[in-house]
């Protein structure tokens, strides 16, 4: 919620206190709140301010600010809207991302707020005047582009406006015509039909006819004849000329400018951009050709921020840049992933201390308003796994293309140099479902990894239904995997023929665990149904104050308790010691009271992590639609997504950051889960190249109509829609 100050615009009182949209329009050089009944109706002669407030998965509130400039808006109104966006951001704690929106060139994010579309109205907004009905209905011709978010743009009502690539809507007094170019896609036509229905309800009160016209349909068809008569008679549409527009490079040239308090642009020396170039007491402009960012340090004044935005807009006009250029304004600490990707050293995660402080302040504000805000999960709180964990398990170790059955006992024993396949059968919605994992050890060979994926794919194809499958890498296992296996010990080394051969051929020391060897285990978990002991290097730097460890030598065994570990951790330590080897008689050692023999076994004292273990920042998921063309992966984000965006012709990626899901539509061009997994890996490589992913998260493949509950939980899922299949 906006903190109210004496110099804050009264229109912002209580702004951002509840989730949803709040819209203001500039009228007589002041902001006027637009009633909810008029949300989505924009006048081309006005300037607007739009605030979108929502809760993140972490429980904290997030704000996004857009200022929309109508085609015929006065410059003074546009400047006021820009200034008020800054004031609103300041009132909300300077954590909102701000976007400039220009009529006809709105961002996908902005359009996603107003489904199915926005159609600007001629004229100027007036808060005290009802809509006037004209005696004659204004005939309008619109292009409708986009398969998920409709981008509507009015074009001249002439035959020359039509083409073979787009979908057009001709709105007349008594009938709405939908003209589909022969090269338009089925998704674009379906989205355009939604827009037609919207126009019928909003402009015709539901009382008008609808006619669909196919490109190339002859005049003999009554609707087609009526359509062409409005253009003065039928005439063939010329073939579209080849597009000669300049294609932007994959990695556009970027230039960083420091903006002085007088609004002068000072370009930084060319070279790789690093975060240290940005000073908290300055404002900067990052020109990325297709988009421009303005970064404002947290110590800059409101006057400096307004000057930097004004200078950037002057720069865009002076350079002759198109209105299609996206302008995004960021305050230090609210940087988007896209902005950070242009810097070579930007940390992937938020600084924990700043993250916790920011969350606490926002949560307190919202709680005062009576809203239920989740706190960070307590360490003792079990996560919701969204699935039954009492099913049946089958486990195989991959060995030279063969599958060796691994007995399902407690504890399960994996080796870091091997690959394993896990089949889990459970009940969901009253029917039996299967979930397959390929677990790839950190030291496993590439040949074994490839064989593991291939064998998993064969197993998936051998069972009934359409099970989900996942590739996971040691160290990045999802929580549900540990709950499925319940008790797991991961040893160094390997048992497979390929691993043994590789060790012998390269004269490497065989690290494979044996009772006679010294070994150090880190104990993790949350309960007796979720426990792991992971063998780590036998050196002091492997220790961590947040965990408990087991150190086993030929003659003795130690259990080491970190100062930041919990009572629950101590219980898990005792239970795991008995499971690994009940004959071991351990000496209890608390951090800071270690005997010399303990350090001698680890090769001497050394520095290790002593800070409290911080839970990872919970990022909200993003949904992308994929298209693989000649090996080149194209990615397009879908904003404010819903279940309806999972269209049967497409392949989509749900990027939950800690997990990635590849969703395959039944009528997509992807024919196998193996192919879908490859697409997911390409997506991950693309994100890594943009420095938006640095690790290897679990990668799932799910199929339309067989979505598991741990996937559907990210949507407001309606099972009846899925059951249509």
Automatic annotation (TrEMBL):
Residues 31-111, 153-217, 275-339, 640-711 form the Gelsolin-like domain. Pfam families: Gelsolin. It comes from the Eukaryota. CDD domains: gelsolin_S1_like, gelsolin_S4_like, gelsolin_S5_like. Gene3D superfamilies: Severin. This is Villin-1 isoform X5. The gene is LOC113730458.
